[in-house]
Design a protein that fits this description.
Keywords: ATP-binding, Calcium, Disulfide bond, EGF-like domain, Glycoprotein, Kinase, Membrane, Nucleotide-binding, Phosphoprotein, Receptor, Repeat, Signal, Transferase, Transmembrane, Transmembrane helix, Tyrosine-protein kinase. By secondary structure, the chain is α+β, with helices and mostly antiparallel strands. The chain has twelve helices and 52 strands.
């Protein structure tokens, strides 16, 4: 028998039906038969044509080489002229393939409605100008079409961007007005949720100016280079304007309502001043079964009950299957759990061990308790196992070990970490009734969570005279025997008293009329002066704007001259000449603008590697945060007790300030460079190799943050945004607290008002905030401790976004209701009970019951010692569910 040897190379992402090889012969007719080497039926051959094709999806990681044995026979005489064709198929590894299935943005399967992965509903749009231009639109469901919207999804981080091509006459007119007015960045804010959404208006004719690159967020050429638009739009001049909407990270099907507010946008004649408001609801709706993609127009290849990801069609295989399409059998063990819903302490749960593609000879259950780092113990030999009742000591890792008939062993783990009590019960073992009054929540550890104005074990007593607020911890300041509201401390004055604390006597109407006349007289004289000053300032600013060719409108701001002078005096030692700065690569984009790596060359000193935070907007709240961060860092340096080589230095766990640039634009803060980035990104990088995570190192980073909080407590400063994203990691793996833009002085917080100015409170980090901060606007060092507990949750989950029971992105009201009812975040999968208990202590409703920063450092140090002592025996305490 003659033999033929051929080798071919095929990329692993070759589509089913792709021709791999073709055999030509002079013998006619012939029959081709694939004898062996076709593992898992990956290839097929046409019996009479000699064409080898891909029959099922390939996967380089599963098998990279196939040796196909193909017999070629003469159909008229099978015994004559037969030959053997050996076809060696080399599968090539393709970067980014197979697609990654990201569970954090797992999409539902929809059974009805418009086939769209993402829905835009309840659109409201209103616009007006002083010359009478009006725009109004209201739509229940927005039918986003391929001709006008291009979706770009990044499955690795669940990010969704949408580019809208503007072509309708009315939309082009609006875009033209905004473009000429210099409106580039349109920052959107979420009504429900903390996911920051932004939009960029892009003009086809815009070109980035090299001298002022920060004024233009994105040029058209950059949009094309990023492949962020429909390729058909590139050369189509009909599309002159584009809006790139960055929806950020979408993680659930919970709708997110976003709104846009643009006020006092100065456009050229004849429009004048413009005002726009818009609102829409974005929902990750999912595709019908078997479909994926932004328009649900792509077919999934997943088989054997595998789940198809709506973003990229990646398959999540059921136990016992593998491969890009989950069509290759593999031995596995599955554990079926009943019930599937919420479980409570004192309840019960049943586990069933299910071998898949295994000839099992025995099944054995083992248990390793979460508490006390216990060793693995034998439970029983059977398929089924029940836990009744569920108690704190039954939490842990349950392992089903299956022995095959040929002596091999496979196992599967299930982690039981039930932490909640049934409704109406509390206590460590959930054996104490709550009996709470006034429909308040009941915390497992603290019991009834009383509303402000109530106290007692069941919230059955109003606050004692002279006290008010949560747990009646605040002292009333009412005078002259006035009554104090036990809920908010408001003084209820008798008819003859007045003032906030009822200090003054009520005056007669005659005196009030005299005062009014005095105020009116003052206004008559002062108002013209203020108006003239405003006109002069506006004309001066207009002149300066024309000199610098700045198209963006700036609102007139009246500032406290004395405060500015004091601030200027403070900044003198810290002011740096921009010529001493060499800027490098972009590090990131934040609230202020952007951050770049740089080098500071001060005369007579060695160059220093720095991070430069640059402000690229004149928005009032951004300037306020910028100034506040400068103030706080300088204040912390001035109050520091630390020295190095005889010179004062910043606390070692607070980011070092190297200087500021305030006398020229753009404004800049020069900070210590952190080569390891922020803690959040560091944690996310650890997910790639969960077994290599060093928990002692992570606890050490948390200890560094606790030391920074102790320093803030010493100098009476509240940070207000303690989170993994605001902790940077410098050389030597030292954690340093950064981003003091929201910091407040504890004892002078009346300077800063809790308002909704420019939507500012909607930017507050709700999921990191203490109950009293969201509900009452009260911030203290103990509210920072609450946020520290959330940061510990981020560490234990390796950088996941905090998630509470209920809506994934709750608004303020939902958040307050959840926390008042005692709801807290659940324990992350790879988190120990001891660490989770420390988190829960940080989340006590009563702020004075929370641990101090010093106590946090002490407890974390104990956890570091425990992790170090137990070494290998502690591995399962931190393992994920397999």
């Amino acid at each position: 028998m003659a033999s033929i040897n051929t080798a071919v190379f095929v990329p692993e992402n070759a589509l089913v039906g792709t021709v791999v090889a073709r055999h030509n012969t002079s013998l006619q007719p012939v029959i081709y038969r694939l004898l062996n080497g076709n593992d898992y039926e990956r290839f097929s051959i046409a019996e009479r044509q000699g064409v080898v094709e891909v029959a099922n999806p390939l996967d380089f990681q599963i098998q990279s080489t196939y040796q196909l044995q193909i017999r070629i026979d003469n159909e008229r005489n099978l015994a004559k002229n037969a030959s053997l064709w050996t076809l060696t198929v080399h599968v090539l590894d393709v970067s980014g393939y197979p697609p990654y299935y990201n569970k954090t943005c797992e999409t539902p399967e929809r059974s009805s409605g418009l086939p769209r992965l993402i829905e835009f509903t309840d659109l409201l749009l209103n616009g007006s100008s002083r010359n009478g231009l009006k725009i109004s639109n209201k739509t229940d469901i927005v039918n986003v079409k391929k001709s006008t919207a291009y979706f770009s999804v990044t499955n690795d981080i669940c990010e969704v961007n949408v580019t809208f091509g503007i072509k309708h006459v009315q939309d082009v007119a609006v875009a033209h007005v905004m473009s000429k007015a210099g409106v580039h960045n349109l920052t959107l804010c979420c009504v429900a949720g903390d996911n920051k959404v932004s939009a960029i208006l892009i003009d086809r004719d815009w070109v980035r100016e090299p001298d002022i690159p920060f004024l233009l967020p994105m040029a058209f050429s950059e949009l094309v280079a990023s492949k962020g638009l429909n390729a058909m739009w590139v050369d189509n001049e009909r599309y002159s304007y584009f809006v790139l909407v960055k929806l950020g990270i979408l993680k659930t099907a919970t709708p997110v309502t976003i709104k846009l507010v643009l006020t006092k946008v100065m456009a050229s004649a004849p429009y004048g001043e413009l005002n726009f408001t818009g609102q829409t609801t974005v929902k990750l709706a999912g595709c019908p079964q078997g479909k994926y993609g932004a328009y649900c127009d792509k077919n999934c290849i997943c088989k054997n009950d595998a789940r198809c990801h709506g973003f990229n069609g990646a398959c999540l295989c059921a136990p016992g299957w593998k491969g890009v399409a989950c069509d290759i059998p593999t031995p596995a063990v599955a554990i079926d759990v009943r019930p599937e819903g919420n479980m409570y302490i004192t309840g019960n749960v049943s586990l069933q061990c299910r071998p898949v593609h295994i000839n099992a000879s025995s099944m054995t259950w083992w248990f390793r308790a979460s508490r006390n780092n216990s060793s693995k113990i034998f439970i029983q030999t059977s398929r089924n196992f029940s836990i009744s009742p569920i108690l704190p000591e039954t939490n842990g890792v349950y392992t089903c070990e299956v022995t095959t008939s040929d002596g091999h062993t496979l196992e599967r783990n299930y982690v039981l970490d039930v932490m909640e009590c049934p409704p109406g019960l509390h206590g460590d073992r959930c054996d104490r009734p709550c009996d709470c009054l006034h429909n308040v929540g009941c915390d497992r550890w603290a019991g009834c969570v009383c509303e402000a104005g109530w106290t007692g074990p069941t919230c059955n007593m109003s606050c004692p005279a002279g006290t008010f607020g949560t747990n009646c911890k605040q002292q009333c300041r009412c005078e002259n025997g006035a009554e104090c509201n036990p809920f908010n401390g408001t003084c209820i004055c008798p008819h003859d008293l007045t003032g906030e604390y009822c200090k003054g006597k009520q005056r007669s109407p005659f005196h009030r009329t005299q005062d009014t006349l005095q105020y009116f007289t003052i206004l008559v004289f002062i108002l013209p002066v203020v108006v003239v000053a405003c006109i002069v300032m506006r004309r001066k600013r207009k002149f300066l704007k024309e000199q610098h060719q700045q198209p963006v409108h700036e609102e007139l701001q009246l500032v406290d001259v004395n405060h500015q002078q004091n601030m200027a005096d403070t900044l003198v030692p810290w002011e740096r000449d921009p010529q001493y700065l060499t800027l490098g690569n972009l590090v990131g984009v934040g609230t202020f603008g952007h951050v770049v790596e740089g080098t500071l060359h001060l005369p007579g000193e060695l160059p220093v590697r720095v991070a430069v935070k640059i402000v690229d907007t004149n928005a009032e709240y951004v300037q306020a945060d910028f100034n506040r961060e400068m103030d706080m860092l300088i204040y912390l340096y001035d109050r520091s007790l630390h020295t190095k080589e005889g010179e004062k230095v910043m606390h070692p766990n607070i980011i070092q300030l190297y200087g500021v640039v305030t006398l020229s634009d753009p404004k800049r803060i020069i900070l210590e460079f952190a080569p390891h980035g922020d803690l959040q990104m560091y944690l996310k990088r650890l997910r790639d190799d969960i077994n290599a995570v060093n928990w002692a190192t992570l606890f050490g980073l948390a200890i560094g943050v606790s030391k920074a909080l102790q320093e803030l407590e010493r100098v009476t400063i509240v940070h207000r945004d303690v989170a993994a994203r605001n902790v940077v990691i410098t050389d030597g793996m030292v954690a340093k607290l950064a981003d003091f833009g929201l910091a407040r002085d504890v004892y002078t917080n009346t300077v800063y008002e809790h308002t909704n100015h420019h939507g500012r409170d909607e930017l507050l980090p709700l999921k990191w905030m203490a109950l009293e901060s969201i509900r009452d606007g009260i911030y203290s060092c103990q509210s920072d401790v609450w946020s520290f507990g959330v940061m510990l949750w981020e560490i234990a989950s390796l950088g996941e976004e905090p998630r509470y029971p209920g809506p994934f992105r709750p608004n303020c009201c939902q958040m307050v209701n959840m926390l008042r009812q005692g709801n807290r975040m659940e324990k992350p999968e790879q988190c120990s009970i001891d660490l989770y208990r420390l988190m829960c202590q940080c989340w006590y409703d009563a702020s004075d019951h929370r641990p101090t920063a010093a106590q946090l450092e002490e407890r974390l140090a104990e956890l570091v010692r425990e992790v170090g002592d137990c070494a290998d025996d502690c591995v399962t305490v931190w393992e994920s569910t397999v």
